[in-house]
Specification:
4-stranded antiparallel sheet, about 190 residues, about 30% strand, alpha+beta, 5 helices
Length: about 190
């Protein structure tokens, strides 16, 4: 959630986001703010701010489900906050990064200072996906998307490096979508595995 505000302040594209501590989410006006956010953006993600692998992540397309999802997330945050003090609930604008082949593409670039060390593009028909979800049938779209990105990377390299630097980092794995050829930043993992 902090990354989104820093990126936006520096003119970098990222989803709109609001966040709440456990204490804040229990106030009536917080739920109203989430419902207003969902009404403004339509499809949103509600999730914890510091879990991996889509744990604690819910896709919301209408306000009817918000209360039920918040009940689940309150429980998750109550447990996580014991070992991760900065755990919050965040609401994030859903970014529609459509491609003509109906595959979603998640870009990940590994940066060290002002160098791109490596990258890959994960492809999937699913809204929530990870490399572990790939099957042999996914190989051709994966190879094609990565080959295509070779030509795109030089045109956005400086923007990617800026996205890492404005967060005060010199190294990290930057994840983003491309929308109309421009990166929409999702997260920076300062230590990648």
């Amino acid at each position: 959630d902090k990354s989104f505000s820093i990126w936006a302040e520096n003119g970098l594209k990222c989803p709109a986001c609001i966040s709440f501590t456990l204490d804040e989410i229990n106030k009536i006006n917080s739920i109203d703010r989430i419902k207003e956010f969902q009404k403004k953006h339509g499809k949103i993600l509600i999730r914890t701010n510091n879990e991996t692998g889509s744990k604690g992540l819910f896709v919301i397309e209408n306000a009817d489900k918000i209360d039920k999802v918040l009940d689940k997330l309150r429980k998750r945050v109550s447990l996580l906050i014991q070992t991760r003090k900065d755990t919050k609930i965040i609401c994030v604008q859903y970014i529609n990064a459509n491609h003509s082949d109906n595959l979603h593409r998640l870009y990940r670039v590994h940066i060290l200072f002002d160098k791109v060390l490596s990258y890959y593009v994960t492809t999937s028909t699913r809204n929530e996906f990870h490399n572990a979800d790939m099957r042999i049938k996914d190989a051709e779209p994966f190879i094609s998307a990565n080959t295509e990105f070779q030509n795109i990377l030089p045109t956005i390299k400086e923007t990617l490096i800026k996205a890492v630097k404005v967060l005060g980092c010199n190294i990290g794995a930057l994840e983003f979508f491309l929308v109309n050829g421009e990166p929409y930043f999702l997260e920076l993992n300062p230590i990648w595995g």
